[in-house]
């Protein structure tokens, strides 16, 4: 069980720590809204990672092969959603700067909406299940884990992902407090939108 715990933690951090478009959006979202909304969004990402870890344990290599034909459509959809979020963030930032209103105060997402938005975007990345499936298959080559080991692996992967995503949300909240000026918030919003768009476009290459 200890081996499964460490394997799950390493797997969870391995998939979560590289900050891509979703992580960047999470930080930017928290910076312009609140830690509560950012934390809910972070748990949405972690839930998707945990579900993919569970799916990999149940389906293994068979599921990884089954989703291979839809990899490209899912990647395009994910990129389109992230680009839409980036454009929306930039438009709201420019609009609020002109009216001297706080960014996104006109229509901030609810915690539930933030959770499901980040969950859905993360679930559109099928490479996550392939990543977990590869780890599971490798472990099963050494010894067949029992159901308790499988449960511990999935739980540890979720906890690792959740802790990192919550760290990103906290970083966003601290960033939002530091950049209290209108120009600072505008620069941060536009910069994060540009980075999100760039990372989303990289999904297509």
Summarize the structure.
The chain has 205 residues and is mainly α. The protein has one domain. The chain has helices at 2-16, 21-32, 35-66, 71-99, 111-123, 127-142, 147-178, 182-202.
What attributes characterize this protein structure?
205 residues, mainly alpha, 0% strand, globular
Describe the structure.
This protein has one domain (2-202). It is 83% helix and 0% strand. The protein has helices at residues 2-16, 21-32, 35-66, 71-99, 111-123, 127-142, 147-178, 182-202. Helix 1 runs parallel beside helix 7 (147-178), helix 2 (21-32) packs antiparallel against helix 8 (182-202) and helix 3 runs parallel beside helix 5 (111-123). The longest helix is centred in the N-terminal third of the chain and has 32 residues, at 35-66. The mean pLDDT is 76.
């Amino acid at each position: 069980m200890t081996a499964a715990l460490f394997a799950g933690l390493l797997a969870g951090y391995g998939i979560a720590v590289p900050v891509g478009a979703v992580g960047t959006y999470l930080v930017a979202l928290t910076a312009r809204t609140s830690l509560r909304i950012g934390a809910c969004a972070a748990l949405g990402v972690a839930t998707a990672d945990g579900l993919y870890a569970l799916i990999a344990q149940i389906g293994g290599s068979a599921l990884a092969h089954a989703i291979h034909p839809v990899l490209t459509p899912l990647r395009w959809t994910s990129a389109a959603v992230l680009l839409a979020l980036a454009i929306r963030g930039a438009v709201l930032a420019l609009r609020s700067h002109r009216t001297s209103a706080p960014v996104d105060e006109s229509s901030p997402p609810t915690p539930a909406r933030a959770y499901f938005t980040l969950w859905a975007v993360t679930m559109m990345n099928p490479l996550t299940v392939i990543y977990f499936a590869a780890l599971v298959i490798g472990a099963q080559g050494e010894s067949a884990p029992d159901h308790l080991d499988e449960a511990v692996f999935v739980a540890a992967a979720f906890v690792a992902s959740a802790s990192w995503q919550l760290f990103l949300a906290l970083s966003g909240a601290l960033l939002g407090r530091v950049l209290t000026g209108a120009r600072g918030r505008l620069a941060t919003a536009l910069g994060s939108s540009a980075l999100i768009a760039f990372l989303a476009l990289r999904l297509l290459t």
